[in-house]
Structure formats: structure tokens, C-alpha cells
Amino acid sequence: MAAANTPLSDRLDDDDYPAYTMGRAAEMLGTTPGFLRALGEARLITPLRSGGGHRRYSRYQLRIAARARELVDRGTPIEAACRIIILEDQLEEAQRINAEYRRAASEASDGPASRSN
After folding, report:
1. 18 pLDDT tier (thresholds 50, 70, 90)
2. CA–CA–CA angle 98, 103, 109 (5° rounding)
3. Biggest CA pair distance of the chain
4. Are 47 and 57 in contact (CB under 8 A)?
5. Strand 48-49 to 20-21 pairing
6. How do the domains of the chain map onto residue ranges?
7. 2, 32, 30: which is closest to 17 by C-alpha?
8. What's the pLDDT tens digit per position in 34-86?
């Protein structure tokens, strides 16, 4: 397992390292383990499993779960909350890619060929 060869300090700084048990994650979010299971069933987050088969959550997954909790607390059904979060994530990724393309296009138009005209 790669994590076993990674120093503890590096793993703790890794947003994707599954450091939190279901109970601790639920406590941190002020919710129930059932809420976290429902997010897993909706495929919003997929917790990793410990050697004993227990669910383990990363900080990144806890941020997603916290966003879902905000939406559900405002009355959004959990299925709709999960879909909203997925769409928000897709939009953010599309905007990031668009910004990269614009930056590349700007650099290309500012290149040496355009200066010689």
C-alpha cells in the first residue's frame, strides 16, 4: 500500500488521505452516519475502506459532505443536493479549463509572430 510508505506528516497534509472514521466525520459535520451513508449511496462521495472494512473519509470528501449538508439544511432533497454539487463541480472544472485555453490563446497571440507585423 502506497500510504504505508508515505511519511505521516505528508499524509496528514494530503486532502485526499482518508484520515477520518465515519463517526468522527459525522461528528465534525454535525450530522449522522446515516447522512454520510446516503451521500455514498447517491455516489456523491465514495469513502475508502480500512483494512477492517470501515469507511474512512478525506478532508476533501468532508468539504463536499458539508456543502451537501448546507443544501439539505435549507430544504433541498438529498438527491437534488447531490446533483447540484456535481453540477457545481463540473462548472468549476469547465471554467478552469476555459481559463487555461484563454491564457494559452492570449500567449499565442502575444508571441513573436504577432510582434513582427
Report:
1. confident
2. 125
3. 68
4. yes
5. unpaired
6. 15-110
7. 2
8. 999 999 999 999 998 988 989 999 999 999 999 999 999 999 999 999 999 99
**Any idea which residue has 506528516 for its cell?**
9
Measured from the Cβ of residue 69, the count of other Cβ atoms closer than 10 Å reads 19
This model's pTM is above 0.85: no
Closest CA to 84 of 64, 59, 60: 64
Q: Specify the 3-state DSSP secondary structure of 51.
A: coil
- DSSP-assigned letters across all residues of 72-101: HHTT--HHHHHHHHHHHHHHHHHHHHHHHH
> Does the structural domain 15-110 have CATH classification 3.40.50.620?
no
Instruction: Give the phi and the psi of residue 32 in degrees, each rounded to 5.
Output: -110, 160
Alpha-carbon distance of 80 to 85, in angstroms, equals 9
At residue 50, the pLDDT reads 86
Cell of residue 29, nine digits: 459535520
Q: Which three cell numbers stand for residue 36?
A: 454520510
